[in-house]
Each structure stands twice: as structure tokens, then as C-alpha cells.
Amino acid sequence: MKIGVVGASGYAGGELLRLLASHPHFEVTAITAHSNAGEQITSVHPQLQSYAGKKFNAFAPNEFASCELIFLALPHGESAKVISQLPATAKIVDLGADYRLESAEAWATYYGGDYAGAWTYGLADVEPFKSLISKSTKVANPGCYATSIALGAAPASEIADMTDVVVVAASGTTGAGRSAKINLIASEVAGSLTSYKFGGVHQHTPEIEQALTKVSGVDAKISFTPILAPMPRGILSTITAKLTKKISTEQAHALYSSYFAKSQFVTVLPLGVMPKTAALTGSNHVQIQVAVDDHTSRLVVSVAIDNLGKGAAAQAIQNANLMCGLDEAAGLNFDGLGV
Amino acid sequence: MKIGVVGASGYAGGELLRLLASHPHFEVTAITAHSNAGEQITSVHPQLQSYAGKKFNAFAPNEFASCELIFLALPHGESAKVISQLPATAKIVDLGADYRLESAEAWATYYGGDYAGAWTYGLADVEPFKSLISKSTKVANPGCYATSIALGAAPASEIADMTDVVVVAASGTTGAGRSAKINLIASEVAGSLTSYKFGGVHQHTPEIEQALTKVSGVDAKISFTPILAPMPRGILSTITAKLTKKISTEQAHALYSSYFAKSQFVTVLPLGVMPKTAALTGSNHVQIQVAVDDHTSRLVVSVAIDNLGKGAAAQAIQNANLMCGLDEAAGLNFDGLGV
Amino acid sequence: MKIGVVGASGYAGGELLRLLASHPHFEVTAITAHSNAGEQITSVHPQLQSYAGKKFNAFAPNEFASCELIFLALPHGESAKVISQLPATAKIVDLGADYRLESAEAWATYYGGDYAGAWTYGLADVEPFKSLISKSTKVANPGCYATSIALGAAPASEIADMTDVVVVAASGTTGAGRSAKINLIASEVAGSLTSYKFGGVHQHTPEIEQALTKVSGVDAKISFTPILAPMPRGILSTITAKLTKKISTEQAHALYSSYFAKSQFVTVLPLGVMPKTAALTGSNHVQIQVAVDDHTSRLVVSVAIDNLGKGAAAQAIQNANLMCGLDEAAGLNFDGLGV
Amino acid sequence: MKIGVVGASGYAGGELLRLLASHPHFEVTAITAHSNAGEQITSVHPQLQSYAGKKFNAFAPNEFASCELIFLALPHGESAKVISQLPATAKIVDLGADYRLESAEAWATYYGGDYAGAWTYGLADVEPFKSLISKSTKVANPGCYATSIALGAAPASEIADMTDVVVVAASGTTGAGRSAKINLIASEVAGSLTSYKFGGVHQHTPEIEQALTKVSGVDAKISFTPILAPMPRGILSTITAKLTKKISTEQAHALYSSYFAKSQFVTVLPLGVMPKTAALTGSNHVQIQVAVDDHTSRLVVSVAIDNLGKGAAAQAIQNANLMCGLDEAAGLNFDGLGV
Question: What is the mean pLDDT of residues C223-245?
Fold first, then answer.
């Protein structure tokens, strides 16, 4: 099955190429990039030995004419511009934000510019999304923070107040993109933690609320504070909400375990074991732990993912697998690096 | 002025020795350690060239007979055992937890073992503590997390609900001590984030609540989740609470700026600038930023300190300065490393 | 094909399990560990979701009775003890040092204890080793430093003086093993470089010399200084030797490129591009660059590998593939992580 | 004593400001920067609380009219342009490369552009430089690599062949400057080692040779390979040369210890203890260890410094102290951070 990748020179695009190289059913035949067009793929992504000798092309519609499946990994606002030039019959997974939000108003507030509409939201491990994805030809792949937070909070609606969910999440630097900015250089980041998009303004906020509302059936509201952590990959999200019923840690753990029992990529860890981002590196897996803080009557959830794996490229492939009627784990059957 | 350090082989003890070496009024004459007794100080702390040729002694009361000021940097439960063997007239700053809690019940719940009582709490930048410290001969130096969280939440009592304060704080690895444990080795920690003491069970919880209640006059309750971050030093605390009145970010910022106007070590950063742990490394300084999240009606506070500096050794020296009637900044007049 | 792993609780053992889980022809049926026997595999290696629910067994010969292929990942001196208890017909790859050295004297000098003899040396990318491995049932997998240095120096014998090769190589912390030692804790390692086994005493020295002598046919002598680097994985080796003939960088590059032309895992990078350890993370790949320093008439070679991948587990699988008559790349067809 | 800093927005400039703030005799009255002119100093260097409220000025000669001492921390080629506009009587320490090389030819080869001449070379811990500095009004502060390598190799001339010294040195990222380049962003650097300026082309090569030749009286030739390490500060240099006489490690150690016996900033560590960059962070100290590799008849030296401290700002202050007839340690009497 011939596939294409538009915007493959960023970190998500690179991870996509890496994972696609060993996918049993997908063959990457078109690879484009904007500012790096004409460069060797390995000069931008030196790890991609599988693509040695190949170059990024500039985007051109005919590159994708024979592709049945196309991944877009573009800055927000760019996917919508490209979409009309792609084959109408092609299945498309957009790793960008353009088609995630159902509210034009939320788009205007958090992103600005033309609102492109909404596609099926690709949070592939939970319903109703999983079923919808299987029937869709266009899927909006969730944001990295949104993936970890929506998964971690999804089971909580039965036991906690979803209208005041507090989240603090720390991300590795690849979440900020492959961009030469002074605040991203290693000397500034090394050995240091700092928050950003502070005060509830991160653009994933409406996306998380939309996802949670769909999953739970109740209106969700999120206070979200992101942090830049001195590591290249990984997101650790801490989610807390007031309990709406008296429940023990064991009961909360049982609820979460039951909720994700059928998911092969989401693991609720045994009590006492905490999620650790390095355990997920390079993979489509998610680790979750849950506790009840009796002292404050709060549910506390810890969620770890790889922002480039489950938080971007790996979930995009999971979505594509579902859209194509394949095993959702095709090409994703491997564990994280651990160390 | 002759001073002594009991328990100088840990990271807080090492930082204390480093800072004391250039203090204008203190002369370190007694240095003891337990498991490292007999070893060269530089073999444990290779940076302490100022102490080249000196050894850690085993604890012996006569070592401290001529000391007017003594710092204790011992594991919890150990300070109380030592105290009776020290000169009754000596001023003492305990960097451990033994004398921090006024509630024997809280001690029993979070630490266990004999309750030693409470000394003046050494949160040196805010009242009523600062005044009390100046009149005290025995001071309990605050915990590292407690320092950052109590300072960050102290001004909030006028505008936010202190009975449901949510805190997520990430610490560098020196906060876990100089201890050969498998979960602390570099291969396990590098490039990874993980939570610990999960579900509201961290022992600083009652300490923070006690401090905030004293500062604000209202009962405070804290949901606190700690995280181990892949860096040696630094704590970044994110604190959030429901607003009790309608207020803008600018007003909250003005309130915080006013609250800390007289503190020479706590800086409320200009709006738009975020605290960054590396900026505080090695220093007694604190950086704070504040925002109002209108979407959720929450106050959000970000606080950065060096867990070994302001969070331990530097604040201990600030306390000693106050207890000795010196300029509180004596020996602490330097900026953090930044990079 | 049923296979077993003896000593799977260390970092090399964990990486072996991770890679074996997606190998197309190998099925891991026996997994033992010494000090972690009885523990869940995921409690030691939290990334190994593929092994969820399985435990490390204590070593027992009958565990391995039906195994056709066995990997040993034991501390040096332990492999020889175990070997007699394994099926005589089983193919064995020893990731330890026990069977690497052909000189009993070198063994005594650098390791001590009983000398076990020598197996085929598993430097799988170069001759004469590759051919020998294909005919062997017992293979000694090379050390991580030895792999990078022997590969990097192998083509140099035609143009440089192999009797005075100078090597400085820096390794990530997993090279020091999964061991709770104070010098390996994150606080000690973070943001710091330090040398160890200083003065030409590293135990890989005779192994490298033996390998180079076999490859080149001339006696090789190595001055080797290892460094511990603040990262979990990766080795970067810098190798330099006096040129024995006048040659340009382009000619040296052509020589190296030609030497490795048939190797699918060793890449001599285009001139101007430098090896980077992160590009190899998790993979069996090697990156090499070469230059002539005209000023000093020296050849300089830079080599990057993943110490746990090509430097241990991945090369062990490559060896097993060759021993079993499989495609040498079976289960190893993926690129490194890059970031 | 009024002093000025030209080019204070880089990492060396920031470290200079940090150290100068607590210097007992120097008062910084003029601070200029080029691209950051008009910005708050704390917006570039958030750690410099001592300079809160002050801005970088654009360079203007009258700013420095009353300065008796001026530090230049400019990109190479810029110092020479500025020098004629400064007071003729002012003492000047140039942290840049412009006045380091005595050979116009070497300047042309390694830097290019106009050759400015040579000032007294500020390698402040060894003769003949120390004496010359004390009599100079213009001093060229050594490069960071050059400092560590020249100090580490200086005592070797009696026992080793200085015409073929091999050096591999790894530096933290601040050595590459405060510059938004893609290869310096944290995602590219984190957890990775890579070499650069490969093949003997690093511009510190002639500087090191010149310094060693002056110190030893014999012509020195250096093969130097630099490496970028995933840490913000620190340089670890490994230096090796063929022994010219039979000598033991103990004898080499005695020679080195004797050579640096009078230096208060260079410590030859006890045998068995290795230099560690973190031990020097923020300080003017140097740690050295030495060994004889009998197997290869080579001397091996390991040297650690902080590239921004001893390698730039701290040594610049030491030079200024000597030039001003002050205690060379004024304002530099503190230990490194250690962790």
C-alpha cells in the first residue's frame, strides 16, 4: 500500500518515517518537506539509515497521486492549504491541529486564522473514537499533551468532578519542534525546568475538553499548566480532580484497569508502580497510575507517554491501521526503550 | 564566630560547607559525619577544595564545645538524638524535619517514631517567621518542597481558596539524597520523569499546611504530587487554587509583587517572564510568576528555587544570620549560575 | 525456534529481551536472573510490556533443555560456570567477557580468576570474524568499547601505525551496569564528565588488540582512555594513529567506504557529517567518519554506536542470526531513535 | 575601581557579570552588548538578580571613559575594532581570540581576516605567563580548551615527546555560545555525543602549541579532537604523549604535584581520584590527574575545568587581579558546585 508523508523534516515527521520503515503493509513512496526540500533525509534525520540516498522533495500534488494513505505533519494552519491538492480518495491522518476542534470559536481563540472544520478525532484507544476512526477516511491525530491528559482523565468522569480538572504536564523538548530558537538551545534547557504558555492559555486546552466531554458525556473544564523538561522525549501528566463519591485507591485502580482492559497500548500499572517516561520511549504505549488522596478527597492520576510516539507518530499509525482495516498494532508491536 | 556542622557528608551538608567557606563571619571548626567519618572531605565532596586535607570526624560532643552556632544536616529522627549532647547555649539550625511540625499526630502519620517537638519554623522571607527567627536560638529549617510551595502560596490567601490548593512540583535528584539506590542511578533517571510518594502522602504536606495556615490565618489544605526530574538541582512548583474573588492577572501580579517587595531573595518576575530553575542554582534566590486563568477561575503560581540552596543550605545560613543579628544576606550575596 | 536468556535483569539482558520480542524467528521460552529471580520482568524493566505477567526464574538447567539457542548476559566469570549445565547442542552467544580472550595471560592480567578459553569472536561486520561466526555454535560477543574501536580502527592498518593507536572513548552510564553504586547515581553523573580505569588499564584493551591484530595481520597496540558521559546510552570513540603513508582525507574516506561497502550496519558518513550517538540509539547500526590531520600526519576516526544495541544485545542477535543461517539483519531492520 | 564589560550578553559575559558582582575591589559601571542593546540584563541572563533593573547599552566610547579596567567578551575579530575607542590608559583583558596568537600566519589559517597582533597571554597559573601578566596592561585571556590542555600538558615536557601530543577534549554546550543554531538545540544535543571541527582544524590548536612551546622551551605539536557533550558547562581533556624516559605513575604524579605546588587554583588530585567537571562548575579551579600507561609507554593526563569559569570569566578576573596588583584570588575564593 503506497503512502505519503507531507512535512517529514520535523521531529514528528522523522519519527513517522522511522516507524513506517518497518511497517508490514505500508510502503512510503512520497516524502516532502518545505524548508528542507532538496536535502538528503539523513542530513536532517541522521538516524534514518533506511532512507539513505533519498531526498525530501518540495510538495507537489503529483507526488501523492498514487498514494492511498497520506500523513500530514505540518505546522498548524498548513494542513488545510494542502488538503485540496491531495487525491480525494486518499485516506488522510493529520498530525497537526487543523481538524481537531469542532468549535470555530475555540479555534479562533487558541490558534487564530481560518477555521478548517473538524475531522474524526483520533484518540485511538478509547470509545467512541476508536469505532469512529475505523469508519473514517480523514482523521485528526490528537496533540501530544491532549493524548496523555484525555486518556488519563477519561475514566474519571464516574467518580470525579470533570468541571474542574487540574493538570500539570511536563514535556521533553522535541514537543517544541525542530526549530532554532534561543530558549530551546541545550545550554538554556539543560538541568532546568520552566513553565510556558502559563495561565491556562495552551492551545491543547479546548482539544482536551472536547475529547473528555465526548468520552464522558459531561462537560469538562481543564486548568492546564505545561512545563518544558530537560529531556528530548516524553510527557508526564499529573491530573487531579475532586472526587464526587467516596472511593478507595483500590476501587479507583479497579475502575481504571477495567476501563482500559481491552486496550493493548494503555497499561494501568500495578499499585505502587509509577509511570516513567523512559519506559515508553519510541513506542505507542501509555502507562497510567491512579490514587485517591483521602486528605483532600481528590483523585490523582499520573500518565506517561512518548510525545513523539503515542503522542504523535505511533498513534498516527494506529489510526491509519484502523482506517485501513488492519490490525491496530501493525508496525507498532514493540516495547519502549526503557533506558 | 566558631560554628559546627553535624552530618556534613550529604548533599545539603556539602552545600552548607561550600557556602560557609566564604561567609564573612562564620568559621567552621567542627565537621562530623556518620558513615563517612575518617574520610577526606574532598573524597566525598570533590568540589570542596577549601577543605582540602580535612577529614570528617565521627560525632563527639566535645567537638562542638566551643561552637556558638551549629547546623544539623541529618536524616529525620537523628537530630533529636544529638541535640542534648550539644552546648545548651549554642544556636542551632536543624536542616532536618525533626522540629518542623507542631502536631505530634502529623509527625506520627508522616514520619513515625518519637515526636521531638517544634522549633521556630525557618521560612525566613515571610512573616511571622522572619521576626520569630530573629528572636530564636533554635530554628527548624524548612523542607525544600515546603519552601517553594509555602512561599508561592503565601500571598494567595486573600484571593484564593486555601482549603483546596493543588500543587505539582518537580525536583532534581539531589533532593533524594546522596544514597546508592537503584532508582536513583543515572541510567534510570536520565531523560525520564516519574512521580513518587503519590496520592498525597509526601511528608512535606503537613509542613506546608502548617506554614500556610500561620502565614495566612486561614486553614490550608494541600494536594501535593512530587516528581523526580532528570537534573541534579532545582525545584519547580506549580500551585493552583480557585479564586475567591474576581481578579485580573495584573492585579494578582501586583499583589504578589507587593507581598514580596521587601524580600531581597524573592523576586516576582515581570509579567511574561517565567521562573527557571537553572537561574537559581547555587543561590538563596526564589523566582515567582503568577497568572489568573479566567477560563477556570483559578490562580496559577510558578515558583523556582535551588533545592540545595534556598531549599536547604542557603536558607539555613539566612536563618543563622537572622538568629545572630547579622545582615540576613551575609555570605549569600551572589546570583545563581544561570547555565 | 526456542531460545533462552541467562541473566536477563541487567541492561544488556533487558535490551536483548526487548529486541527478541519482535524477532521473526526466535521465541523466548526461558528467562532467568540471579538476584532478581522471582520478580516480575516488568518490575525490573518497566518498558517490557511484551513480557507483562512473566517472571524471572532462578537459573535451572532444565529451563533450557529445549532451547536451541541461548544468550548469556552475565558478569564476567559467571558464563563459564553455567556453560556445562546447558544443552551441549545449543548454540550459545555469550555477551560477557569469559570467552573473548585467546591469551590466558591477558585474562589473568585484566580480569583474574580461572581462564575459560576462547570462542569465535563475534565482531560480526568484518572478516575474518563474519565467516567464522557463520560456522560456529559458540560465539563470544564483543565488548561495547571493543566493538566501536575495533570497527573504527580495522581499515586503518594499510595506512597507519597500528602499534601506537590512541583511543579516547566516552560511554553512557548503562555501560557501567544496573548497579546501585554511589558514583553512578544521577546526582553524581548529571552534567559531568569523568574518566575511569585510567592509565591504560581498561579490560577491553587486550580484546581490542587481539581483534585488530586478527583483522589486520599486524600486531596492534592500543592506548585506551574511557570516560563516563552524562547520558544513558551511546559510545563515541575517537581513534588516532600516525599515518604510515601520505594520504588525503578523501583517500582515507574512500578506503573506509570501500572497506565497509558490503556491511549493512556500518555507515561511513559523507565527508563533513559527524557520527552522533543518538542517531544509533536502540539499533545495530554504526556511524564512522574519518579525517587526515595534515598538521600532525595523523589519521583521526570518530565512531558512534549504542553500547546496548550494537555494543551488546543487537550484535548478539546479529551473531545468532549468522550462527543459525538466517539473514543477519533478521529482527534488526530498524533505525536508531535519533532524538 | 570602575570597570566595564564590552559584549556582556553571551555566556562568558554573563558569567563575568555574575562573578564581578561579588568582587571586593571592582565596581561594574559600564555594560554594553551589541544585538541585545536596550534589553534588561535579566531578560538575557535571568540569574543576574544583582543587575535587576539595569540594561545593556549599545557600545559607545564615552561609556568607558572613566573605566580603569575593561573586559572584552566579543566574537573573534571584534575586539580589535573596539580597542582604539577605549581609554588608552585602561587595563584590558580580552576574552576573545584576537590578541592570542603571535603568528600572523596561524591567525590567517585558523581565523582569517585582519591580524591584530599579540598581547601577553593570560595563562595565569604558570610561568612565564604569570609574571608577564603582572607587568602587563593588555592581556589576551586563553581559550577554554587551550586553558585545560596547556595546563595539563605544561609539566610533561621533561618526560614526554611534545611534538606529538594527542588530545581529545569534550566540552559542554555553553562553549558553543549563546546562539540559536539547530545543532545546538536541546533535542539534538540531549543524550548524545558528537565530534566537531574534526581532523585537527580547531582554532585553539595553534594557541595551545604556542603556549606549550613558551612554557616548555621545546616546539610542541598537537593533534586535537573536540567533542560536544550533553551538559551545559565543563571541559574534560584527555592528553597523551609518548614518554621520553622510563618513569612510574608515582614519579609522574610527583612531577605534576611539584609543578603546580604553588598554584592555588590547580589541584593535582591524589592518585586514584579522577577529575570531574561538575566539581569545578562556577569556579576558577582546575583538577588534574596523571598516569603512566606502561603497556604503551605513554603519559596520560586528565584535566577538568569549567569552560565558563577557569576557561573564560574566572581566569579573566584572575588576570585582572594580577594586572592590578591585587591578590590573584580576589573575588575567586569559592569552590565549584559539585552537583
Answer: 98
